[in-house]
């Protein structure tokens, strides 16, 4: 029988646990027939359509029968899911990436390969963290009993405190200082150590040596300025308007020339690029896109500092 | 949102929990799904079929209702009836209900 009702019933029951399919199916058919009979309309097809419309989306109805939330991650565990995922991406991911890059560098003594390995582990480890924690919380949200769910995710004001503490801690500024120091170190190191070994045995720097007659200097000074400001922020706890101006100057010195040479496609040593890319050249749009991202990050950093100094001003 | 709409939406929230109590109160005599929906409708308890039918099964799973297929008539129907545990829960809920009414009465008189 391929009536509209039958199709509707099938749509509902194939989404509920197998054990109750037959029973729910019988009951639904009887109920729909009862409703139709009570309407007693001459236009049977039209009435059937109207009754099914009132019953609503079969997916929703099936979810009600199965007594489960419609979203992949139910609302009870969603906040915890977001917190755990953020924590993993902010702590485990950078550690794994740094370790894999160092391991690659020790093994091959080749910066290009280490960068490739770093990018590779960002993508694969990031995707794995995301996929596994999503699966774990999906299962938690489906199979945990309701009262247990309420217990494990009940919000207490204690949750607020840890966020505030993190905000005031020195961890953020120190991580930021370390990041800018690493960037500055890499910039100098790749020029002095000429880490890339070309096919013909020549050792090449990664970035264009021509940068050192111009843009490399403000970039380097900007980075060092940011390191100094971050350390000052971490230990001196000064977050006033003057430090915001400092950040603005340092960030501009670092970001503007960097964005310019990226957009201008003069960032990499042409010999290095030819070795890595072969004869394939990246489209100009990639470089422009990267330049826009660099600028956006710079602007965001300054906005963050402005906001921080305002908050600090209010707290005083 | 005007006042009428606001009342309607708040009243819906208010009534949501009372459907279970109404079902437990009515199912002293066995009923099948659609007939119960009609009875509730006539009594002024607004509930949709797509809410009520899954609800009946859930209450059965929780042991508050029992069910039986009646195949005497041309159309087999599943009849629900309150269990002993369901009757105890119903009595407890009725007590809760009266307490709530008293509390709200007291609060609105004071206001």
From TrEMBL, chain A:
Keywords: Membrane, Transmembrane, Transmembrane helix. The chain crosses the membrane at residues 80-103, 115-140, 171-190, 210-232, 244-262, 282-303. This is Uncharacterized protein. It comes from Actinocatenispora sera. The lineage of its organism: Bacteria, Bacillati, Actinomycetota, Actinomycetes, Micromonosporales.
TrEMBL record, chain B:
Residues 25-89 form the Transcription regulator PadR N-terminal domain. It holds the Pfam family PadR. It comes from the Bacteria. InterPro entries: Metal_resp_DNA-bind_regulator (IPR052509), Tscrpt_reg_PadR_N (IPR005149), WH-like_DNA-bd_sf (IPR036388), WH_DNA-bd_sf (IPR036390). Gene3D superfamilies: Winged helix-like DNA-binding domain superfamily/Winged helix DNA-binding domain (1.10.10.10). This is PadR family transcriptional regulator.
């Amino acid at each position: 029988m391929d009536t509209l009702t039958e199709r509707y019933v099938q749509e509902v029951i194939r989404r509920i646990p197998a054990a109750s399919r037959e029973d729910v199916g019988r009951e639904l058919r009887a109920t729909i027939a009862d409703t139709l009979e009570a309407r007693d309309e001459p236009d049977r097809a039209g009435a059937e359509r109207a009754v099914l419309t009132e019953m609503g989306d079969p997916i929703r109805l099936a979810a009600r029968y199965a007594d489960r939330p419609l979203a992949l991650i139910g609302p009870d565990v969603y906040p915890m899911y977001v917190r755990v995922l953020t924590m993993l991406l902010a702590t485990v991911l950078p550690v794994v990436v740094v370790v894999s890059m160092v391991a690659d560098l020790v093994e091959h003594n080749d910066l290009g390969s280490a960068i490739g390995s770093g990018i590779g582990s960002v993508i694969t480890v990031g995707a794995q963290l995301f996929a596994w924690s999503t699966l774990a919380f999906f299962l938690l949200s489906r199979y945990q009993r309701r009262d247990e769910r309420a217990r494990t995710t009940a919000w207490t004001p204690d949750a607020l405190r840890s966020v505030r503490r993190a905000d005031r801690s020195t961890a953020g500024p120190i991580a930021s200082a370390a990041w800018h120091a690493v960037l500055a170190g890499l910039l100098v190191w790749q020029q002095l150590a000429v880490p890339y070994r070309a096919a013909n045995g020549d050792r090449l720097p990664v970035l264009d040596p021509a940068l050192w007659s111009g843009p490399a200097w403000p970039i380097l000074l900007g980075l060092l300025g940011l390191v100094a400001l971050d350390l000052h922020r971490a230990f001196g706890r000064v977050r006033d308007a003057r430090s915001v101006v400092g950040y603005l100057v340092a960030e501009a010195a670092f970001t503007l020339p960097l964005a310019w040479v990226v957009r201008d496609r003069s960032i990499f040593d042409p010999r290095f690029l030819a070795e890595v890319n072969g004869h394939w050249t990246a489209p100009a749009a990639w470089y422009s896109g990267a330049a826009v991202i660099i600028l956006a990050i710079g602007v965001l950093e300054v906005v963050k500092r402005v906001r921080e100094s305002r908050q600090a001003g209010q707290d005083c | 949102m005007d006042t009428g709409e606001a009342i309607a939406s708040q009243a819906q929230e208010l009534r949501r929990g009372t459907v279970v109590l109404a079902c437990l109160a009515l199912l002293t005599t066995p009923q099948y799904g659609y007939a119960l929906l009609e009875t509730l409708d006539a009594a002024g308890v607004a509930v949709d079929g797509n809410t009520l039918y899954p609800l009946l099964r859930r209450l059965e799973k929780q042991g508050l209702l029992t069910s039986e297929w009646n195949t005497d008539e041309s159309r087999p129907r599943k009849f629900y009836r309150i269990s002993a545990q369901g009757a105890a829960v119903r009595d407890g809920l009725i007590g809760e209900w009266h307490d709530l009414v008293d509390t709200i009465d007291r609060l609105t008189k004071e206001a």
